[in-house]
Amino acid sequence: MGTAGGYYVYILASWRHGTLYIGVTNNLPVRLDQHRQGGGSEFVKKCEEFASPQEAIAREKQLKNWRDWKIRLIEKNNCEWGDLSHSL
Fold this sequence. Notes:
The protein is of the alpha+beta class. Helix content is 39%, strand content 14%.
């Protein structure tokens, strides 16, 4: 897996049912090393701001639905939540 033109979507989890991160890369081993060294996305440093509690709650529900979908996807392919990077 390298820079031969292929792109990969990946999901990282801090632990089982922990924080989830989705990214895209064309060099998965290098990108995983960057994450391990703290070079992850700026996404974890940002917050969304809303004008009303109703808007914030609606966004929270949307994100929770996405999270449930991601968890189902992970458990379909990796029910033990094992580190799959060794197979790269």
